[in-house]
Amino acid sequence: MLLLLGTALLGTGAGLAAGGDPPRLAAEDLGNVPVGSAAPLRPAPAVAAAPRPVQPATLELPGRGVTAPVEPVGTGPDGGMVVPEQVRHVGWWAPGVLPGGAAGSAVLAGHVDSRTQGIGVLAVLPQLADGEPVVVRGTDGRTARFRVVARREYGKYDLPREVFRRDGAPQLVLITCGGTFDPVAGSYESNIVVYAVPA
Predict the structure, then answer these.
(1) Which pLDDT band, with edges at 50, 70 and 90, does 16 fall under?
(2) Domains in the chain, start-ordered, CATH in brackets?
(3) Distance CA 177, CA 171 (A)
C-alpha cells in the first residue's frame, strides 16, 4: 500500500478479510478541517515551555481500546508513502514532522484490512467522533495528546497536499483506506482521513 503524496492515497494491495465481503466504511464528514495558514501563532508567555515533539512509538485511541506500534516509513520510488505490511502496525511519515511539535502536519497511516491478516488497526477511523482523544506515545515515554476535530473521505487521487504540510498550525492526521473495494484493481476507491489538533 502506498500513499501518493499530494495526489493518491493508500492505493492498497490489501484486500478484504478472508471469507466475506469487504467492510463498507460509512464515513460522513465531521467537523472543520484545520487550515495550515490560520491566524499567526501568538507568542507564548515567558513561563510556558515550547512544545516538545515525540519520536512516535505507539498510537493509542483510548475511546476505542486501540494501541498500535508505530514505525517510521519513507517514500517509495514512485513517490508514494510506504505503509507497513502488518495491518496491526501504523506508519509515521518520517520525512514529515514529528507529532507534538509547534507546527506542521504529522501523518500516521495504515491498512484498513488484508485478505491474509484480517481487519487493520485503523479500521476504526470512520467511527471516530468529534473530540475523541488520540495519543502518540514517544520512544522516551513522553506523550503528545490530540483530539479529533474533523473526518473526511477523499477519492483515492484527491488527497489534499495540505495533509503533508510542514508549516502552519500543528495537527495530527490519521489515514486509512475507505469506500468500496475494487477486486479487479485490488484497492479501495477512497481514503478516510481524520484530523486531530493538540489537546
Answers:
(1) very low
(2) 2-30+53-198 (2.40.260.10)
(3) 20
